[in-house]
Automatic annotation (TrEMBL):
Domain of life the protein comes from: Eukaryota
Organism: Phialemonium atrogriseum
Cross-referenced InterPro entries: Nucleotide-bd_a/b_plait_sf, PPIE_RRM, RBD_domain_sf, RRM_dom
Keywords, alphabetical: RNA-binding
Gene3D superfamilies given in the database record: 3.30.70.330
Residues covered by the RRM domain: 9-90
Pfam families on file: RRM_1
Designated name of the protein: RRM domain-containing protein
Record carries keyword RNA-binding: yes
Length: 153
């Protein structure tokens, strides 16, 4: 299964109580389809007693099963809390976008989006050759405008 297909078949479950385990999540979401994986990220903060971070990802074998789980479990009560269930978003790459350490114009995504094809470049060169070697001077006719007041006659 490709990464994009996996994320389409994965649901985000938020607002979980601290008592929730992967087994209880699996049992709650199995009625909607075959589950491939349940991920309950552990809490890395040593100052809290919570075992997990309050959210989980449930990956189904089929994207239709994920949609069914969203329709049925969003805003449901689970371990005394109302949970939020939605389609999972693919994580952003550390090498792409504005938060990356690579300049945006050196990133593959930016280059693919903003690259000028050789055909377009040749068409621009031809249009410039037909219109003259150089466009008119934009400062032409602006002499004397730096002086305030009426124009002398």
């Amino acid at each position: 299964m490709t990464d994009s297909a996996r994320w389409k078949a994965t649901v985000y479950v938020g607002g979980l109580a601290s008592l929730v385990t992967t087994t209880s999540l699996h049992d709650a979401f199995i009625p909607f389809g075959e589950i491939a994986d349940v991920s309950l990220p552990k809490n890395e903060n040593p100052k809290t007693t919570d075992l997990h971070r309050g959210f989980a990802y449930v990956e189904y074998e089929d994207a239709e099963d994920a949609k069914e789980a969203i329709d049925n479990m969003d805003q449901a009560e689970f371990f005394g809390r109302v949970i939020k269930v939605s389609a999972a978003k693919a994580p952003k790459s550390a090498d792409e976008g504005l938060g990356s350490k690579t300049a945006v114009w050196q990133q593959e995504g930016w280059l693919a989006e903003n690259a000028v094809s050789e055909e377009d470049r040749m068409a621009g060169d031809q249009a410039q050759a037909v219109g003259g070697a150089r466009p008119g001077d934009p400062m032409q006719g602006l002499e004397g405008l730096d002086v305030a007041g009426p124009k002398p006659e």
